[in-house]
Amino acid sequence: MKIDRLLGILTILLQDDRVTSTFLARRFEVTRRTINRDIDALCMAGIPVVTHQGGGGGISIAEGYKLDKSILTTEELSGIIAALKGIGSVSEKTQIEQTLEKLIPNSEAMVSLVEPIIIDLASHQKGSLTEKITLLKQAIQKKNLIEFDYFYEKGETHRTIEPYFIAFKWTSWYVFGFCLDREDFRTFKLPRICNLHISDTEFSPRAIPAEKRDLDAHFTDREKIVAVFDKSVKYQLIENYGEYCYKETEDGKLQVEIRYTNREYMISWLLGLGDKVKIIEPIDLANEVKRIAQNIFKLYK
User: Fold this and answer.
1) Pick from 60-64, 85-89, 165-169, 253-257: least confident
2) How confident is the model at residue 156 (pLDDT cuts 50, 70, 90)?
3) What are the distances in angstroms from CA 211 to CA 84, 208, 215, 218, 260?
4) Are 137 and 105 in contact, with CB atoms under 8 Å apart?
């Protein structure tokens, strides 16, 4: 991408006194004409790039600017590298390595930017997840429809959508697009997608309403639950709902009042806590958990 190349060129110019357009062209695997256009773009953006002719000539940033101003501080560049490494956990490794190499032109900078933050956006399904993200990026860039099988709480379905963007949110990866089967914008969880296929059919992008683009609006906490937990699962309550989510009762229990979106997920989570939790309300949710627990007991009786 051009912005990546411009950022890489700028970083090199800030680190080196003078480089040639031939060197930059080889480094970024483009033509010298492209590099010259990039230099013009940097100049238009207010970066004082100077071209020196003749023997020993080359491209540099004007003296003084390099000393007085820095487009990227060590901390800022370090943050970019951490983000790139995070994307690298679910992308093709060689692509990220090439970008990092362009951003860090010498070994000294690499040593000074040892990043203390590790971002791993992958899961135990990293192989298939990387493949899906690669295919989705291709479909989004080329504006091609995609088809896939999707597994959810009601079973299995086949969907065809216009893909618009990929998002990492709520600890998982999603693809957002216009579903032709439901005639509305939808989000789909990538781990639940199987048999992903890019169609030959192209689509014209639709205008996405602001309320649809807000992914948080797709998951609203409408239902409320009040439950009492054993102190031994206090760490799980804090992990999921924060350190101030509970009130301690007189008998040493932890009472929690929370709202949730997905009933099936909430039931699964509560059952996973076994006898460490008791639902106070709603009664219908307590009865459903009780019924499932009785069926489990029968299964192992």
Assistant:
1) 85-89
2) very high
3) 29, 8, 8, 9, 20
4) no
Query: Which residues does residue 152 pair with via DSSP β-bridges, in sequence order?
Result: 155
- Start-to-end CA distance of the chain, whole Å, equals 62
Residue 142 to residue 226: CA distance in whole angstroms: 48
Q: Is pTM, for the whole model, over 0.85? A: no
How do beta strands 49-52 and 246-248 pair?
unpaired
Give residue-wise pLDDT tens across range 10-38.
Answer: 778 877 668 888 888 888 888 888 888 88
What whole-number distance in Å separates Cα of residue 60 and Cα of residue 189?
Answer: 47
How far does Cα 16 stand from its chain's mean position? 33
Residue 140 has pLDDT above 50, yes or no: yes
SS3 readout for 87-99 = HHCCCCHHHHHHH
